[in-house]
Amino acid sequence: MPLNILFAARPERWTTYEKPLRAALKDEGIDAHLSTDIAPEDVDYIIYAPNSTLQDFTPYIRAKAVLNLWAGVENITGNPTLKIPLARMVDPGLTKGMVEWVTGHVMRYHLGLDTDILKTDATWVPRTPPLAQERNITILGLGALGTAVSETLVSLGFNVTGWSRSPKDVPGVTCLNGAKGLKQALSTAEIAVLLLPNTSATENTLNAETLALMPKGAFIINPGRGPLIDDDALLAALDSGQIAHATLDVFRIEPLPKDHPYWAHPKVTVTPHIAAETRATTASKVIVDNIRRGQAQEEFLHLVDRNLGY
Ligand code: NAP
Question: Which of 273, 292, 293, 302 is catalytic?
């Protein structure tokens, strides 16, 4: 009997994913009926995007797992009808995209690239760009993405501090955790990169109090989630000069409303939630590996802890 695998995401995703998923299933030797339309009681696995029309999991009585297409799971962890294992997306393609996006924006701040790119007059003022070893960067969140970003920044020579909920050991990175660790992590953060999930515990991690702990003139890069930052506190910190500039990819409301002060703020760069996208080819292999694991009664990879919310 083939496995019934439901693809529950927006139609444009099906167009992107159908072929790579079928190829990955074939490569794993899994006999599957993959479709966007299967009777709920017959479904074995659900490949899922939280903005799908499927929001009530109650009729999916024999499904073994929900396999999320996204890294962020805040829109599904609280769903009371979801009682089976939920795996989030950890995709090598997405991780690579995030590493490249963050490194690019770090380099913009580190080298002061705007000084030359935005210059409009004919002045000739030579300066010596700093070296990476003279720059302290703090990564808030040392998970799949934060760790990969930290490793790349370390390999470039930056002084990297990372902060997480539980203790971590990442070679070359000063790893801190807990409330005291956050204070220490921010005290040296000339550039802070936010790669935390959106949970009740991480909301407003950067607020008036914690922004004040950062060195004056620090930079912020947020590809994590909008609610990690208290927007009013950030705007005040930008206006006072405590924070020199912020690059924000994610927001409490997306798309960012046209009248939001971030759009026109001279010290804010807005990017439209593009830091890292799941890549269908690599992500399909991850999903199919989890289906293989489920069938072999092995533990699923990348399971979400519903109590912690990530
Ligand atoms: P992850 O592997 O789950 O890592 C999350 C990290 O945050 C872990 O190090 C975790 O600590 C830490 N953390 C969680 N709660 C914390 C708390 N209360 N205090 C301190 N640290 C805490 O997640 P990921 O795959 O790296 O992804 C991170 C986030 O990036 C996602 O949740 C998503 O919101 C965002 N994202 C954005 C884009 C984009 O395009 N902008 C794309 C993909 C993902 P422990 O290590 O101790 O568990």
Answer: 273
85 CB within 6 A, ligand 1: no
pTM beyond cutoff 0.85: yes
Q: Which domain holds residue 40?
A: 3-91+278-295
CA angle 189, 277, 252 (to 5 degrees): 60
Tens digits of residue pLDDT in 219-275: 999 999 999 999 999 999 999 999 999 999 999 999 999 999 999 999 999 999 999
Query: How many independent structural domains does the chain possess?
Result: 2
Is residue 145 lining ligand 1, measured as CB closer than 6 Å? yes
Instruction: Looking at the CA of residue 196, tell me the nearest atom of ligand 1.
Output: 7
Whether 224 lines ligand 1, by a CB cut-off of 6 Å, is: yes
- For the chain, the 3-state helix, strand and coil shares in percent, each to the nearest 5, are 35, 20, 45
